[in-house]
């Protein structure tokens, strides 16, 4: 009697392809992050000399544009994540919009004649950055739940958010300068931005762990 042995074939790796709407969301969030980074760096560098140079209106306008781009980032992330992590993606959208409103309010302080000027902007922006830190932590949770990006993107985004929160605690409890903590901020958001732009490529497949 002969027997036939059926050799099991290895299961094909599971993949998840972004929908057209999710790719548009990734593209929107990625490009908005890139543009706001390019705009906020010179605006921040000019901020402390804005009163001396009579450039308060220029700096305020730059940060108002950044605030609009922040809303675009939040909406783009929501489009990417809502199918995979809906409650968390909504929380991420709301927190990013909240940060944008606070940033815009900080920028408007620069335009008030006889107001607190740059000092008032720094004070209000410090509160806004706490909200941004919370937002990035929420985004990291949403990315983890979605199983879309590599782990390094999740970790980098979470570290960036935590760094904002730690920076606020240090600023309130010590007299140390705060600039040293900004490095992981930029790295975390740059990693997130790079992944968004990469995954927005046409027909890009996201490999599940």
Description of the molecule:
- The chain has 209 residues and is mainly α.
- It is 73% helix and 3% strand.
- The protein is built from seven helices and two strands, in the order E-H-H-H-H-H-H-H-E.
- It has helices spanning 20-47, 50-53, 56-81, 86-109, 117-146, 151-173, 182-199, and strands at 15-17, 205-207.
- Strands 1-2 form a two-stranded antiparallel ribbon.
- Helix 1 packs antiparallel against helix 3.
- The model is unreliable at 1-6 and 8-15 (pLDDT under 50).
List the helices and strands and how they pair.
Blueprint: E1 15-17, H1 20-47, H2 50-53, H3 56-81, H4 86-109, H5 117-146, H6 151-173, H7 182-199, E2 205-207
Antiparallel strand pairs: 1-2
Sketch the topology as an H/E string, one letter per element.
EHHHHHHHE
The overall strand count is 2
Q: What does the radius of gyration come to?
A: 21 Å
The overall average pLDDT, rounded, is 83
Which word captures the global form? globular
Low-confidence stretches at least 5 residues in length (pLDDT < 50)?
Answer: 1-6, 8-15
How is the biggest beta sheet arranged?
2 strands, antiparallel
H/I helix tally: 7
| Share of β-strand residues | under 5%
Portion of residues within helices: over 70%
Whole-Å distance between the termini? Answer: 44 Å
For the largest sheet, list the strands in their spatial order: 1-2
Counting copies of identical and different chains, the oligomeric state is single chain
Structural class: mainly alpha
Give a quick precis of the structure.
It contains seven helices and two strands. It has 209 residues and is mostly helical.
